[in-house]
Amino acid sequence: MVDALNGLEGVVAAETVLSEVDGLAGRLVIRGRLLDQLAGRVRFEAVVHMLFEGFFPDLPGDLAAPLGAARAEVFAETAAIDARLLALNPVEAMRALTARIADGDDLATALRLTAAPAVFTTAVLRARGGGGPLAPDPDLSHAADILRMLRGITASPAETEALDAYLVTVCDHGLNASTFAARVIASTQAGLASAVLGGISALKGPLHGGAPGPIIDMLDEIGQPENARAWLEAALDRGDRLMGFGHRIYRVRDPRADALKAAVARLGHGAERLPGRLAFAEAVEAAALAILKARKPDRPLQTNVELYTALLLEALALPPAAFTGVFAMGRVAGWIAHAREQAAGGRLIRPQSRYVGPAPKLAA
Ligand code: ACO
After folding, report:
1. 320 Cβ contact list (under 8 Å, min separation 6)
2. Do both 51 and 83 map to the same domain?
3. Whole-model pTM?
């Protein structure tokens, strides 16, 4: 029996046409396009189309209207929001509502599931704030409608572009933990809703998509650039990890960090709202990278996607409680495409475990 590979590091567990993560070059390719050619340049609907292409025979040329209609359709499920659901963490509440969508492998199911994190996260957050959920406007773009459903006001074009850049940046990323979870489920032919629910569940952990909320806490606790070094050293002395740094695949800077930093800069912070926030985050980042380099000289630990995710979503006036749900709004497209790819061409994913428990007592 071969040794168990801790964390499956280095294992190639799928072939995919969807995305390539080059951890040494710091490069992300999505369906033949570099991230730079997509983020800030195309809408989320366009990358959903790219990801779905070849996996649904009836895929129309433009997904804006069908995705808008799917948002309106799944909104009916928000009637199930009650006090027990609102007592859950917002991601768990969004997951519970998503679980009301029936399994299926067709485009209609895929679009309902693509709409689900957007409609349910915004509805749950509105309801938690004491307001009623706002029904989707199918005529708006997905990003514009998300901001309107959440904040109750029409977003500026710059804000919509910034959220679009984020959703595009995180739409797919190789065989990350949530996508692997989705593919394992899809390999049993369970259906797209089951695969997406598995993806949401894996995403919510702080080692994956749950990091941006704690990053805001970190920035707030540090408060001033001159406090950064002492705060970060103390966190590492306690044995904490610095959220927003390190990655299983990237040994250089995560290219998504720069795509999102550029989106924050373009937004100009809605500048009045967050004066100096970008410069402050850069100072904290520089301090963290220097400390990590000194403490872990053999393990290159660089900025990952989450630091500037936190900054961008904060600049869009989204509460930290929304962050993981907003990540799911983008990544859901990748989960669905991977699930279709796996179900279409892959075998059941069923590795082995090595038993290290006690041997059975044999009768004398
Ligand atoms: N802060 C401090 N030390 C770190 C960090 C960090 N952020 N990341 C890794 N290390 C250290 C580990 O302590 C370990 O040191 P050791 O060998 O002395 O014990 C070494 O670097 C290797 O760490 P692993 O856990 O083996 O690395 P792995 O590839 O499993 O972890 C992960 C990747 C989970 C992202 C990790 O870097 C981490 O916990 N980062 C902080 C959380 C975070 O930012 N999550 C978002 C990731 S991006 C995404 O999923 C969208």
Report:
1. 212, 213, 216, 217, 310, 313, 314
2. yes
3. 0.94
Ligand 1 center from residue 245 Cα (angstroms): 7
- Does residue 39 sit in the same domain as residue 91? yes
Q: Which residue has the tokens 């410069």?
A: 279
User: Which one, of 244, 241, 226, lies nearest residue 313 by Cα?
Assistant: 244
Catalytic sites, residue numbers? 247, 306
Ligand 1 centroid, distance to 300 Cα (angstroms) = 10
- Is residue 311 one of the residues assigned to a domain? yes
- Torsion angle of the four alpha carbons 65, 203, 7, 250, in this order, in degrees rounded to the nearest 10: 70
Is the CB–ligand 1 distance for residue 296 below 6 Å? yes
Which domain does 39 fall in, by range? Answer: 16-208+322-345
Print pLDDT tens along the chain (364 aa): 567 788 999 899 999 999 999 999 999 999 999 999 999 999 999 999 999 999 999 999 999 999 999 999 999 999 999 999 999 999 999 999 999 999 999 999 999 999 999 999 999 999 999 889 999 999 999 999 999 999 999 999 999 999 999 999 999 999 999 999 999 999 999 999 999 999 999 999 989 998 888 999 999 999 999 999 999 999 999 999 999 999 999 999 999 999 999 999 888 755 445 568 899 999 999 999 999 999 999 999 999 999 999 999 999 989 999 999 999 999 999 999 999 999 998 899 999 999 999 999 988 7
CATH of the domain at 222: 1.10.230.10
